[in-house]
Fold DMT family transporter.
Amino acid sequence: MSNTVSSGPVGSRPYLLLATTMLLWGSGFSSSKVIVDHLPHSVVATLRFGGGALALLVALKLSRQAGGRQRTSPRDWMRAAGAGVLGVFVYNLFFFWGLSLAPAIDGSTIVPVMSPVLTTTFLLIAGQEKASAARVAGLATGAAGAVIFFVGSGGEAGAGQGRLVGDLLFLLSACCWAAFTLSGRRVLAGIDPLKATTYATLSGSILLAIYSAPSAVEVAWQDVPAYVWLNVVFVALGPTAVANLLYYRGIGAVGPASASIMMFVVPVVGTACSAVFLGESFGTVQAAGAAVLLVGAVLAVTQGRLPARRRAATPEPAPTSRGTEDA
């Protein structure tokens, strides 16, 4: 599988690509919240990823004209499409449903922090990562932080149970994204990252469009403000088309475990955007839970140190003996 690792200039800067991805994703939470406040959550998911799919199809067409065609086997296409069902369709049903019930600041903490925790947990269970004391302690700390966070969201004054339900939906979307991340290496086994991202986004978007059609018919489209459409364009191009492509390239270069470490940039960006643009904030209990969760997650994924995975950022192929190769 080492042949699937991105080569050339992309292989020399995977963490720069992943950092750009996290900045785009972090800003996408507050921007998506603006749209959800005016349109049904299923319609918003369709607009975001349908627009992203169109942008990726254009990029794929241009790449074919520049570099010629490369045949894709039906098995490779099905793998990418299957990843789209999980990472685009199911993930976004949970995510945007949760966003319609809970603040964007909750999603920007739960999804990017729990995703690498869940990814690491699966790798440990599958025996593809070592269960060191630091990792076990980190997972336990993260679990405690998650409990505190959810207790805080349920007890938030004036929030009722809506915020708690929304946060639980965010947790389900994090489960989907962890599975999507783990499937990345296998999906990229015989297909270019641009093709894989395009097929995955397209297949998920088609399912989203079918699911959201009844809600879309009831929308008064003429009353949607212009700034909402500006946010639709931004999330479709930036946090969706560009970010997902860069994320797949990052996974192809360094593997899902190392790529998931970069997810810890997202809560910082997402929290800042939610506070500045939406005026959102955490309650005291939620803030404490978020801090404990983040500390536990970082400890679980990094084992208290930066692993020697930086070697994967060089143009040399990644060793095939790494546990994450078969994820």
